[in-house]
Amino acid sequence: MAGAPGGRGPLVGQRHPARAPLVPLTVDSPEARRRPRGRAGREIVEAVLQAASLSLARGGVEALTTNQLARVAGVSVGSLYRYFPDKHAVVAELARSVERRGLELAASRVEALAGADGRAGTWELVGVLLDPALGTADTRRALLREVPRAWIQAATRETDAAVEELLASFIRSRREDFRAVDPARLAFVAFHAVEGVIEGALLTGSASLAAPWFREELFQLAWRYAAPDGALVESPTSAPTPPAPAPEGPTASILARLLEVPASRVDTEPRPPRSARGQRTADRVLAATSDLLAEGVYEALSVRKIAARAGLSVGALYRYFPSREAVVAELARGLKRRSRALLEERLGGARAAPFRDAIAALVRIYVTPDLGDPTLRRAVIGQVPRRWTEADTRETEARAVAGVAEAIRARAGQVRDADPERLAFFVSRAIESVAQATVMLHPAWIEDGLLLEECVDLAVRYLRA
Asked: Which domains does the chain carry?
């Protein structure tokens, strides 16, 4: 739509006077009512979580209901409510189950690394994030595509913090093996960089996750960033620790019941205006939604609130947007389009720039204030499912990879001798992941310039010959 960010009309969400310092985005994460104590209870909870994973992939979180979950799981609604107060608690527990397995694997791996140096430890810890024991690829992909990031981060905040502290402690215990940078910051950037590349591969359905070269490149990404200048960068020659047993997939009965439930999705596509007056109405809806998102959380939004803020009737809103989700999705797509325009503009200007300056231009795309009110941007990043903006995201990422690959080819001799597209994919995904995690969890790093410097170091150290 012309009035959305990146379109031809006014850029909504940029009317931001002086703001208070940003604080980490927080969203309440519902807890399970109780933990199962016996075998029967554990079987009910496991069936509900398997049903949630399959149902998310099929219809998205917005179409999920507790009745549907109970039906697919083969349990009564009362049995589901015995352990979970609502669908949000089920989804949060599904996310926690993946993260808990990651923490357990990381802790056991660190314990086994008593005599290992920083390089060998990094190799092993990268393997934790690739371990099949974290969950099936389908489950992890469904969580990434269908569940807002703020939900996931709220549900897994404590576990993620524990993993980061575990990594930071490992760095502190081998201080001479790592750069003289705050261990907590090294751990945060390396963890989210590696996680971001893996998530990118999961979202595209890539078969590369199991390939030896994929783990090698993840190791290079993390170790080259964390290691001091002059350190050996080749991966250890010892065989990696065998992966833990993968969790069992859904039972045949759950799969059969899933097929009995009609598939449905909430419509998130806008209806294009056919007149200038209609465009102005749509722009007012988007501007009102932008303001409301910047003030509070997505779950508090309603069509009535948006219409009231825009000074319109609910019917006028529905003429152009079939649902609350459609309004927010269009706002998010607009930010993606704006990001793509900045990407093309800045990559074009960086082609002739020195290597580090060119990388800095790429990093600034993800942290620039030109994308509008940062509070709004955090709300969109955190509370809009990735699936709603998939088409725009794919196009933006493809252009980012192509632009970075072109810059890499133009710097032969300065950059590692490897496939330029592969290097560009790793750099783009890593920077975006670290930037988005920082926007949500450590926004002060953006304001004091720490995010820019760390992301530039991450990319330059990974790419340089």
From this structure: 39-226 (1.10.357.10), 322-463 (1.10.357.10)
